[in-house]
Specification:
Blueprint: H1 2-18, H2 21-53, H3 77-90, E1 93-98, E2 102-107, H4 110-118, E3 122-123, H5 129-139, H6 145-171, E4 176-178, H7 179-196, H8 208-225, H9 232-235, H10 239-258, E5 272-276, E6 286-290, H11 299-314, H12 321-326, H13 330-339, H14 342-348, H15 359-389, H16 392-406, H17 423-435, E7 441-445, E8 450-452, E9 456-458, E10 463-467, H18 468-472, H19 491-494, H20 515-532, E11 533-537, E12 554-556, E13 560-562, E14 567-572, H21 579-583
Helix pairs in contact: 6-7, 6-20, 7-15, 8-10, 11-14, 11-15, 15-17, 15-20, 16-20
Length: about 575
C-alpha cells in the first residue's frame, strides 16, 4: 500500500511541476480555501450543537443566532449594572454565546455554584487532574498556620513603611491620596519579603511599576474584546501587542531592581508576562505564561531556587528540618523555621511517595504567588477602606475595637493572636469582600457533563462562568445586596445561609490556597490604618471639585478597581499611634 501511495504521489507532483508555477498557485489556493471552508463548517456545526445542548438555560436577547452576545460585555460600571439586570431577570443562570467561538453558562446562585465548584473540572488558570492534586498537596504546608504566624510581622512592617510615607506626604500638604497605587506597592513589598526574604525599597521608588501593571490590565481587557487578537500570531504583531511587550519590560525591569540581593547575578529577570486566556467572560483573569521568544523560565526566580536548593543540600543533618526530626533539638528546628520563606518551604515539601516539586514547578508557583497575590489583596484593602470611609459609624466601631486590643502595649503591632480578637473589623472586611469582590468571576471547563437543578446540564466542553459578583449581588440570596451592612456576617445571621453564598476566594477543592494569607494581611493593614488615620471620601486634586463620593464608578479589570482611581482623605489621629513606626 505504501508503495502504491508513493507512486501516485510521485506521479501527481511530477505532473504538477510540468504545469508551471500558476498551476501550483491555483492548487495551493484551492487547498487553502478547502481547509478554511472545512474549518468554518466545523465551527458552525459545533455552534449549533452547543446552542441545542444549552437550550435548557434561558438566554438573554442576542444580536443574532450566529454572533450571539458578542460585544455586549462591557468592562465598566455599566457592565456591572448589566450583570445586576441579568441576575434580577434570570435568577440563577443563563446561557451566553460569544459568536460561534465560545459557549458559556453564567451562574449566580449558590444552588448552582455549589455543584459546579465541587465538580472535577479543569480550571483555566491552574493545572489539571492528578498533576493539580499533587501540586496542591505539596503547596499546602506553605500556607499552614505556623507559617502564617511569621508572615504577620512582615505585614506589620510593610504597613508601617506605607504609613510613614503617608505621614510625610501629609506634612507636605497632600491630604487626599490615591489608594490603589499605595496599596499595590505595599502588598508587593510584603510579598517580596514573604516569598524571597527580600526587603525591597519598592514603596519609596517611582510608580512606573504600578502604572505598567494598570496598562497591562487595560491591554488584556482590550485583547479579550477583540476576537482576532485571541490568536498570538496576530496579537504580537499588533500595536496593542507591542505595547504589551513594552509594559512587561517595565514591570520586570522594576522587579529586578527591587529584588537585588547580595548573591551575584540575581538581578536578571526573563520576562514572564500576564496574558489573557481567551475563554473568559465577566473578568479576563490572567495566567502566568512565558513571554514569546524569550526564556520560558524566570531567570531571577530560577537562580533564587538554585541557590536555596544548594544551601539545603549543604546543611548538616541537624540544621535541616528532617535532621531535627531525627535528632536535632527543638531549638534548632525553631530557628530554622523562623528563617524559612515561601521558596524554602515548597523546596522542602515532600509528597507521600517522597517526590517534591521540581525546580521548574517551584519557579512557576513562586511567580504565581507574586503576580496573582499582590494585586488582589491590594484591591480588597482599598475597597474595605473605601467602605469604612463612607460609613463613619462603622469606622469608629472598628477603631475602638483595635484601640482596646492595643491598650497598654509598648509597640502598636498586630499579633497573630489578635486576628481572632477583632470580630467586628473582620465582619466589615467580609462585607466589603462581598460588596466589592476583587475577583468578579471564576471559570471552569468540564471534561464531562455536569447536572444542575431543574434538569439542566452543562455539557462537556462548555465554559462555565461562576459569577462571584452576581452571586454576591443576588437579591434572592442577600437582602438589599447593594448596601454595606457588616452585620450580615454576625454569627447569628450566618447559620441559615448557604456556604456558597459568600465566595470571594471561590469554593470547593479548587478554592484559593492563599486565602488565609490574604485575610491576615487584610486584617493587619486595615487595623493599623484605622489606628493611625481617620478616613473620609476624598477627591483627585487634578480634577478639582470631583469627589470620590458614594457615586464612585467601579472598573472591572483583572481585579476590581475604581475609574479615575480611589481617592481617600487621611486625617492623622491626635495623638497618633506611631510606636510601630518608630520601631520600623
Amino acid at each position: 500500500v505504501l508503495g502504491v501511495l508513493w507512486g501516485v504521489s510521485a506521479l501527481f507532483f511530477s505532473n504538477l511541476l510540468r504545469g508551471g508555477p500558476w498551476q501550483v498557485l491555483v492548487i495551493v489556493a484551492t487547498a487553502l480555501v478547502g481547509v478554511a471552508t472545512a474549518w468554518v463548517g466545523w465551527l458552525l456545526l459545533r455552534h449549533a450543537w452547543f446552542r441545542h445542548r444549552l437550550s435548557c438555560f434561558s438566554t438573554p436577547p442576542a444580536h443574532s443566532w450566529l454572533m450571539g452576545h458578542l460585544g455586549q460585555m462591557r468592562d465598566s460600571e455599566e457592565g456591572l449594572l448589566d450583570v445586576d439586570s441579568l441576575v434580577r431577570t434570570h435568577g440563577h443562570s443563563c446561557s451566553w454565546f460569544l459568536g460561534p467561538f465560545y459557549h458559556l453558562v453564567r451562574v449566580f446562585h449558590p444552588d448552582f455554584t455549589n455543584p459546579l465548584l465541587k465538580a472535577a473540572g479543569q480550571s483555566l488558570l491552574i493545572s489539571n487532574g492528578e498533576e493539580w492534586s499533587r501540586r496542591r498537596r505539596l503547596l499546602t504546608p506553605a500556607f499552614h498556620f505556623d507559617v502564617l504566624k511569621g508572615y504577620v510581622a512582615v505585614f506589620n512592617n510593610a504597613t508601617h513603611t506605607m504609613h510613614s510615607k503617608w505621614m510625610r506626604l501629609s506634612s507636605e500638604g497632600q491630604r487626599d491620596l490615591e489608594m490603589f497605587q499605595h496599596m499595590g506597592l505595599m502588598t508587593l513589598d510584603s510579598l517580596l519579603r514573604c516569598a524571597f526574604s527580600h526587603s525591597s525599597d519598592c514603596q519609596e521608588t517611582s510608580n512606573e511599576f504600578t502604572t505598567a501593571i494598570l496598562e497591562l490590565g487595560d491591554l488584556i481587557m482590550d485583547r479579550r474584546r477583540t476576537i482576532p487578537h485571541h490568536w498570538d500570531c496576530i496579537y504580537w504583531r499588533s500595536a496593542q501587542g507591542k505595547r504589551f511587550r513594552r509594559a512587561t519590560e517595565v514591570v520586570h525591569s522594576d522587579l529586578s531592581l527591587y529584588c537585588l540581593t547580595p548573591y551575584p547575578l540575581l538581578n536578571d529577570l526573563s520576562l514572564y508576562c500576564l496574558t489573557p486566556y481567551p475563554l473568559l467572560s465577566d473578568l479576563s483573569l490572567y495566567c502566568l505564561t512565558p513571554y514569546p521568544l524569550l526564556s520560558d523560565l524566570s531567570l531571577f526566580t530560577r537562580r533564587v531556587v538554585e541557590h536555596r536548593r544548594a544551601l539545603i543540600r549543604t546543611q548538616s543533618p541537624r540544621e535541616s528540618p528532617e535532621g531535627a526530626a531525627r535528632g536535632g533539638t527543638a531549638g534548632d528546628t525553631a530557628q530554622r523555621q523562623k528563617r524559612k520563606d515561601f521558596i524554602d518551604i515548597i523546596l522542602l515539601a515532600q509528597g507521600e511517595e517522597g517526590g517534591g516539586l521540581t525546580d521548574k514547578e517551584v519557579e512557576a508557583e513562586a511567580n504565581t504567588f507574586m503576580f496573582a497575590g499582590h494585586d488582589t489583596t491590594a484591591s480588597a484593602i482599598c475597597w474595605t477602606l473605601f467602605n469604612l470611609a463612607g460609613h463613619a459609624h462603622y469606622q469608629d466601631r472598628c477603631r475602638d475595637e483595635v484601640k482596646e486590643l492595643m491598650r497598654d502595649r509598648a509597640e502598636q503591632d498586630i499579633k497573630w493572636a489578635d486576628l481572632s480578637s477583632m470580630p467586628f473589623t473582620t465582619m466589615c472586611i467580609k462585607e466589603s469582600l462581598r460588596l466589592h469582590s476583587p475577583v468578579l468571576a471564576v471559570t471552569r471547563q468540564y471534561t464531562r457533563d455536569v447536572d444542575l437543578p431543574g434538569n439542566r446540564t452543562v455539557p462537556k466542553g462548555a465554559i462555565c462562568l461562576v459569577s462571584i459578583y452576581g452571586t454576591h449581588h443576588n437579591p434572592a440570596v442577600w437582602s438589599d445586596p447593594n448596601e454595606f451592612n457588616p452585620l450580615r456576617f454576625d454569627p447569628a445571621n450566618t447559620r441559615e445561609r448557604s456556604s456558597n453564598a459568600f465566595i470571594p476566594f471561590s469554593s470547593g477543592p479548587r478554592n484559593c490556597i492563599g486565602q488565609r494569607f490574604a485575610m491576615a494581611e487584610l486584617q493587619v493593614a486595615v487595623a493599623l490604618t484605622l489606628l493611625r488615620f481617620r478616613l473620609s471620601l476624598g477627591s483627585n486634586p487634578d480634577t478639582a471639585g470631583t469627589s470620590t463620593g458614594q457615586g464612585i464608578r467601579r472598573l472591572p479589570q483583572l481585579v476590581l478597581r475604581a475609574e479615575g482611581g480611589m481617592w481617600l482623605r487621611l486625617e492623622l489621629l491626635d495623638p497618633p499611634c506611631t510606636e510601630g513606626l518608630h520601631a520600623q
